[in-house]
Amino acid sequence: MAELRCPCLSGLVYDECCGPLHEGLLTGAATAPTAERLMRARYSAFALGRPEYLLGTWHPSTRPKALELEAGRQWRRLDILGTEHGGPFDTEGVVEFRAFYRIGGDRGELHERSRFVREAGRWLYLDGELLG
């Protein structure tokens, strides 16, 4: 059986890319070292239907009480357009991305500038600004 390529399109297999971050949320064994890595892991969580990871990496000040992923939405591609800060020694970072999806026969795109903060050594998603 072929190994699953990571949905974030890093070129790695899931178990060597976003998989350890998804599992690390439960065990505390692995956290994203940069804002971009968290963005990629969150995208993969959307693609694989893992709302627990999304909620667990969302800053408490902006996190919703619950998150229901849209049934039928298939996330197809993530393009990272740019980053500002968000490195292993920063406390804030921004990642601009485009994410492409399908719902039935319709195609769509999400273009966002996401803000991240690093607290107690963990990157967290703060909020995002949708772009045209």
Automatic annotation (TrEMBL):
InterPro entries: NTF2-like_dom_sf (IPR032710), SEC_C_motif (IPR004027), YchJ-like (IPR023006), YchJ-like_M (IPR048469). Residues 34-128 form the YchJ-like middle NTF2-like domain. Pfam families: SEC-C, YchJ_M-like. It comes from the Bacteria. Gene3D superfamilies: 3.10.450.50. SUPFAM superfamilies: NTF2-like (SSF54427). PANTHER family: ADENYLATE CYCLASE-ASSOCIATED CAP C-TERMINAL DOMAIN-CONTAINING PROTEIN, UPF0225 PROTEIN SCO1677. Belongs to the UPF0225 family. This is UPF0225 protein CLV54_0081. The lineage of its organism: Bacteria, Bacillati, Actinomycetota, Actinomycetes, Micrococcales.
